[in-house]
């Protein structure tokens, strides 16, 4: 996504964007989970581009999420904004110059993620116009504004009622939730959660066929999960950036190099990567960690375990690639390896 500086006056506030600063984590792989829906929830089999839900005979459901690039080439033709409508005016400004629908949708999702605070007060108006003016909403208002922004520039989208079985520190808490679904002419419908995950939702998101419950609200639970999603790159846009935001890419192109460090045996340790004017430190949990946003050049990797240096390697990145390295943790003499 690329665009020049952007200035607009919306809901009484001047918004000026000048540089590309915000970062999100690009993910790929797959995520599978077996979930027990909350009592009274209406769940039906469902499938879209990247998400599949199937009911099992024992009352559980199986959800599979494919994080491969969307690979959409659907073009985007911008519409003239209704100057009397602040929602349409904002959407037109955000999407100006976008050549493909994925780019236009990404800009809208990024703006909502950056500018709308998550607020659990359900007593206030959750209409798109009120959310935009207030700059806060709970999930229904956030989804409603996102759909309205997209619809105002001709992109078909709808709200999705659901339930989040497992929350994360950067996403919504467990419980009933609402996200969005966007239609691509060449790919069909695609889920997004504006506050946490763009162009996908994790396998712990359970789509509900109806937001009405057949009985008193209860809680759902996670039966099993095989999460093989991984962070592979950084994605930038013109904004501040919400912590922990994850993005499904549209293509396999890379913006920077990345290094996956796998320790053998799989122990918790600290990995330090120095080179090209930077020093990065990662906690290696469960024997694996990924350094993102690397420029081509020479680096030194140190692994510290149990209070001592357990490994040291020299590496050279000659291009913006995703490299993986297996590091034996122990008494290892300095070793040079080269990644091309």
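-> sequence recovered:
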């Amino acid at each position: 996504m690329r665009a020049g500086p952007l200035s607009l006056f919306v809901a009484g506030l001047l918004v000026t964007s000048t540089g590309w600063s915000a970062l999100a984590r690009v993910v790929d792989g797959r995520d599978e989970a077996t979930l027990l829906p909350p009592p009274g929830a209406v769940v039906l089999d469902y499938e879209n581009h990247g998400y599949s839900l199937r009911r099992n005979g024992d009352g559980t459901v199986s959800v599979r999420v494919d994080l491969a690039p969307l690979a959409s080439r659907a073009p985007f033709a911008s519409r003239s904004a209704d100057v009397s409508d602040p929602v349409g005016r904002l959407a037109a400004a955000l999407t100006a110059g976008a050549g493909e629908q994925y780019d236009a949708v990404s800009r809208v999702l990024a703006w909502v993620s950056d500018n709308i605070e998550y607020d659990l007060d359900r007593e206030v108006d959750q209409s798109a116009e009120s959310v935009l003016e207030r700059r806060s909403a709970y999930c229904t208002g956030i989804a409603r504004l996102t759909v309205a922004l997209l619809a105002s520039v001709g992109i078909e989208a709808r709200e999705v009622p659901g339930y989040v079985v497992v929350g994360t520190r950067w996403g919504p808490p467990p419980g009933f939730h609402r996200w969005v679904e966007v239609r691509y002419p060449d790919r069909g419908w695609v889920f997004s959660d504006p506050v946490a995950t763009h162009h996908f939702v994790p396998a712990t998101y359970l789509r509900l066929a109806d937001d009405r419950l057949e009985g008193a609200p209860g809680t759902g639970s996670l039966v099993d999960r095989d999460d093989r999603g991984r962070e592979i790159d950084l994605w930038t846009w013109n904004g501040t950036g919400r912590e922990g935001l994850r993005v499904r890419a549209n293509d396999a192109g890379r913006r920077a190099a990345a290094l996956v460090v796998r320790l053998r045996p799989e122990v918790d340790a600290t990995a330090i990567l120095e080179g090209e004017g930077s020093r990065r430190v990662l906690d290696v949990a469960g024997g694996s960690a990924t350094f993102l946003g690397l420029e081509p050049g020479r680096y030194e990797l140190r692994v510290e375990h149990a209070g001592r240096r357990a490994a040291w390697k020299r590496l050279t990145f000659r291009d913006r690639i995703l490299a993986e390295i297996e590091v034996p943790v122990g008494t290892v003499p300095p070793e040079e390896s080269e990644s091309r």
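Residues 1-20, 332-337 have pLDDT under 50 and may be disordered.
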